[in-house]
Amino acid sequence: MTTSSQTSSRFKDELRILSPWAYALAALVFVAIPVLFVVFIGRDPKAPPFAVRCLLGAIAGTLLACYVILIGYINRDAGRRGMSRLWWTLLAMFVPNGLGIVLYFILRKPRTAHCPQCAAEVAPGFSFCPRCRNRLQPVCPHCQRAVDLGDKFCPYCGGALEPSAVAPAAPAAIQPPLSS
Ligand SMILES: [Zn+2]
Ligand SMILES: [Zn+2]
User: pLDDT band at residue 175, thresholds of 50, 70 and 90?
Assistant: First the structure.
């Protein structure tokens, strides 16, 4: 898998958290702003020519729709990072020049994940759940370090990686805890 396709699929996954109202509002803005520019500003005798109004309307509509999508994203994303959804949404909306949005992406906390087996909170980058030893990420069977799914050899110890050994373990395939 190439990096660009990974990035785009991650981008699609991220957009999936948006609520339908954010999409609806963005679509409305995307249509309403050009109409406003072309029809209503056109009634002003000093208005710029039709083609210029179309272009300005399309640009303004696209920018505002992106702005709405970003605010909708922050509204959802803040929640899954344990940050205040209300305050960050308000900041993103009302701090001028999009600075609230920029601030959010600088200050946002790392996303907390949960172990699929015991629901314990696990930090990004953990290979095993610290509470139940569930395997969270593909790991090298020889040195237990995190590896990529597509790798054939471990980048740390050079050991051969079999596809079945690297795949995240299903609950049934979990190794029993080491006896002490
Ligand atoms: Zn666990
Ligand atoms: Zn290894």
Answer: very low
Q: Are 136 and 122 contacting, i.e. CB atoms less than 8 angstroms apart?
A: yes
Confidence (pLDDT) at 1: 47
Neighbours of ion ligand 2 (CB under 5 A): 140, 142-143, 154, 156-157, 159
Give CA–CA dist 12/1, Å, rounded: 16
Domain map (residue ranges) of the chain: 3-111, 112-180
Cα separation, 28 vs 61, in Å, equals 9
CA of 135 to the centre of ligand 2 (A): 15
Ligand 1 centroid distance, CA of 122 (Å): 8
Tell me 156's DSSP state.
Answer: T
Among candidate residues 64, 92, 76, the one with its CA nearest the CA of residue 20: 76
